[in-house]
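Hey, I was hoping to borrow your eyes for a little while. No rush at all, and the record is pasted right below:
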Amino acid sequence: MHHGLDNDNQVFFYEQEFYVLSNFSAFKVQIARNVFMTAEHAYHFEKFVNDQLKAEIKFAWSAHEAFQRAQAYKAHRRPDWDAVKVEVMKKILWAKVDQHSYVRKKLLETGERQLVENSWRDDYWGWGENKNGQNMLGKLWMGIRDELRGFPSLRLRAEADQVRP
C-alpha cells in the first residue's frame, strides 16, 4: 500500500510512512561532540561560525524554530556555505542512518524507488512549488541507500534529475 503520492516508482518523504527521511523528524544526531534534536538543527548549526548563533540554533525548541533562527541570521552565514552545504548535509544524513537502525531500515525499504522530498517550499532540497526542483535531499538519500547496498554512491540516476509526480 502506498501513502499520499507514493507509487511503485517513487517515494515522497516529506510526511507519511517515510517521514523518517525528513530532516524535521525526531531523530537525534551526533556530529563530533554535538548532539542535535534533529538533522534540521544540525544542518542550520553548520551554517554559522559565531558561537552564540550556533548555540541558539542548537538549543532551539523545534526543528522549525532552528530553521527560523537560521533564516533570521542569514546575513551572518559562513562565506563558503554554498560551496559546502551539500557535503555538510551528506555528513548529517550519514550520521542519522548510522545512529538509528529504524531510519536505515526505512531507507532500505524504499527499494529502488526514486526518493523525492515533497516540499513545496524548497526547490533546492525538495521538488518545490512547481514540482521541478533539484531534489538534492532525495538524491543524497538515494546515494546513501546505494552505498548501504554496496553500490557506488556517485551513481546519481538519470531519473533523479527529473522529478515527476
